[in-house]
Amino acid sequence: MLFEQLEIIQMDTKLKGDIAEQAAVFHAVKRGWGVLKPIGDRLPYDLVFDVGGVLVKIQVKYAWFDSPSGNYVVDNRWTKTNRRLMVREAYKQSDFDFALVYIENLDLFYVFPVDVFIGYGSEIHLVEADKRQRKPRSANYRDAWNLILQKVLNCKTDTQSPTSDEQAVVSEIAPFRVPANGISI
Fold it and tell me: Could you tell me the pTM of the whole model?
């Protein structure tokens, strides 16, 4: 009887986004990564993963099923809304590091580097059917969490301590000295 009284909840885009974000948090924590959540939704990213001390900005999207094409689809633009207005604009390269596109009924993420994600038109079609003769470009990013690890490894090798040649150059540069009066020009 109680079950009959419950209404079926129609999921709006905000709720779908919340579901996708929580799934992303779950998948990141399963991998041993830390997760940071910005306050509010004014930033162009939704989460930050702490992977071995390297912070990675993440934009999370929820893909919907498009019956006519048989594909899952995601809009790759930034949607800003208030009570009266909805504005969509293209993301920039500096907005985030990776976009995670969630397909809920498969509990599956596509992991797109930002340059690939913004390189598509306004929509990305994700093909989950095996009947195609060739793989779509998006197939390379299906469940590709290793791309985040590769970025982290690249960041760590870029920030390793300087080589002996680099240290020699640094030692030749006169160290910064603060004058006795504490004023520097």
Answer: 0.77
